[in-house]
Amino acid sequence: MDRPRCLVAMVLICLLSICHGRGLRVGHKNNGHVYNHTLAKILVEYASAVYMSDLTALFTWTCSRCTDLTEGFEVVELIVDVENCLQAYVGVAHDLNAVIVAFRGTQEHSIRNWIQDLFWKQLDLNYPDMPDAMVHHGFYSAYHNTTLRPGIVSAVQEARELYGDIPVMVTGHSMGGAMASFCALDLTVNYGIHNVQLMTFGQPRVGNAAFVSYFSKHVQNAVRVTNEHDIVPHLPPYYSYFPQKTYHHFPREVWVHNVGIGSLVYMIEKVCDGSGEDPSCSRSVSGNSVSDHLAYFGIEMQADTWGTCRIVFHGNMVQYQVDLAGNIVLSKRPGVSSVLQQSVEADKSRNAI
Ligand SMILES: *[C@@H]1O[C@H](CO)[C@@H](O)[C@H](O)[C@H]1NC(C)=O
Ligand SMILES: *[C@@H]1O[C@H](CO)[C@@H](O)[C@H](O)[C@H]1NC(C)=O
């Protein structure tokens, strides 16, 4: 090796060891899984598309956000819980060779009001069969106690019967990330799916420290992407002086933020520590931005129409079912009516109580 090249190599090695000395060992390993930037850029597009209100365009994957890195996606089922204003889909990404499950964030009248409410959310539900684990009842039941769960679980099972034991990637933004977390845990623990991956964007906290240790034991491949000063990951608040009573994030946070000045600005994706509450990640800044919540990796993360739970739907173009409560399931599966039958019966028994 001649001298200049040798020097360059030495400088490079030096730089690498300085930069990665601590980061690589502590930061990039996620129970053996590595944070994958390419995958994050793909999943953020799936989490953005689920906000679209034209159900027909979403179901046929022809919506304006159904392009770019998600092209060729095959929707298996699209579920709209009209009663609770929730939306999710299940499908197969053939290029990733994975099942994708995506949850929409809140559609409430004002995102600001929804965020304000998060300041006061209590840990108000014991997570079933898990002593001391407490979670936020509203987030929990948005997944567990609505039309979403039965539709998603059977669509995931159907996709895996068709395509084999392929990974299930669960994603969502904001409240959709909270629901995605409960879904990933549910698929792992209650349905025995061993290769569930979770990646959420700007999600709030969902449970306490006891819940987090249970969660992390089961959902080992979990990434929570946070962006700059996004306020939502700071909520409901974390009180370090009440360790038993406070909400606590699960690992692994990846904090995306820009550094530099003037024209020399570049994006950093910091892979945070295994605690879930790394003080050197998004917690090192004040969460004071709503606009940082509404765009991740430059992708718009909000509804195309705000305000109401508006949906656009050309029912004659696709196969669909509507239950007694007016909830809609668009499905490519022949057996979809049986799922709806279950949820209709669940509704009846609720009314009886
Ligand atoms: C990251 O994800 C992409 C898309 O799934 C995949 O093609 C690539 O191999 C992954 N990279 C690593 C290092 O796992
Ligand atoms: C499920 O929803 C019904 C009605 O919406 C409610 O009465 C019931 O308490 C809920 N159950 C749980 C565990 O949240």
Number of domains: 1
Give the cofactors and ligands: 2-acetamido-2-deoxy-beta-D-glucopyranose
CATH 2nd-level architecture: 3-Layer(aba) Sandwich
Strand content: 15-25%
C-alpha geometry: globular
Text of the CATH class: Alpha Beta
Give the quaternary arrangement of the chains: single chain
Overall pLDDT confidence: 85
Spatial strand arrangement across the major sheet: 14-13-11-9-8-5-4-3-18-17
Supply the CATH superfamily name. Alpha/Beta hydrolase fold, catalytic domain
SSE order, as H and E? HEEHHEEEHEEHHEHEEHEEEEEEEEH
Strands, total number: 18
Distance between the termini: 81 Å
Protein name: (wild Malaysian banana) hypothetical protein
Keywords: Signal
GO biological process, one term: lipid metabolic process
Domain Fungal lipase-type: 100-238
Q: Any descriptors?
A:
two-stranded antiparallel sheet, 353 residues, 9 helices, 23% strand, Rossmann fold, 18 strands, alpha+beta, disordered C terminus, binds 2-acetamido-2-deoxy-beta-D-glucopyranose, single chain, disordered N terminus
Account of the protein in words:
The chain has one domain: 3-Layer(aba) Sandwich (Rossmann fold), CATH 3.40.50.1820. By secondary structure, the chain is of the alpha+beta class. The strands form five sheets. It has a ten-stranded mixed sheet with strand order 14-13-11-9-8-5-4-3-18-17, sandwiched between helices. The protein has a two-stranded antiparallel sheet with strand order 1-2. It has nine helices and 18 strands. Helices cover 33% and strands 23% of the residues. α5 (137-144) crosses α7 (175-189). α7 links the parallel β8 (168-173) and β9. Residues 1-21 form the signal peptide. InterPro entries: AB_hydrolase_fold, Fungal_lipase-type, Sec_MonoDiacylglyc_Lipase. This is (wild Malaysian banana) hypothetical protein. Residues 100-238 form the Fungal lipase-type domain.
